[in-house]
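User:
I study polymers; will you set down one protein's sequence and backbone structure tokens?

Assistant:
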Amino acid sequence: MAAQDVATAMQRAEAVFRRRPEMGLHEDSAVSARWEGGTRITASNANGTQISSDMPCELGGTGDRVTPGWLFRAGLACCSATTIAMTAAAQGVDLTTLEVQVGSRSDSRALLGMREANGEPVCAVPTDYEVRVRIAADGVSGDALRALVDEGLRRSPMQHAVKTAIQMRLRVDIDTH
């Protein structure tokens, strides 16, 4: 879809949401993750899309699939790139390059339930997140592109989820056999 088509679609949606703000709030499509044995998990969307994850050999997996942490970083990178591209389209900027790379550091000891020397559990939260954006557009200054990136990231739901540590509800259903 061309940038102008994206901008037009966004303008239509914005017009609807201005008239009926409640239309903007919706349930996101749920992901269902099913254990396939070992550390292999297959996630499914209601539309039939599936993706499998597994852990590296060192942690009991086969190492032939991406890890759940990689999927999280991929979601963060894709969401960021999407909102930057949408922002560019809304501003009439024709991008020639847009790449987003997300990296982080994790402590695998947390996966094993290990504790620090002081007895505290090792923190399972990935740290040192870095989002690196490579962007270009003919005739647009570096400052304008930086502002566009900042605005795009401000609009990213996944960026906000990481920054604000969204609340999670847990519901456990126990099957009896």
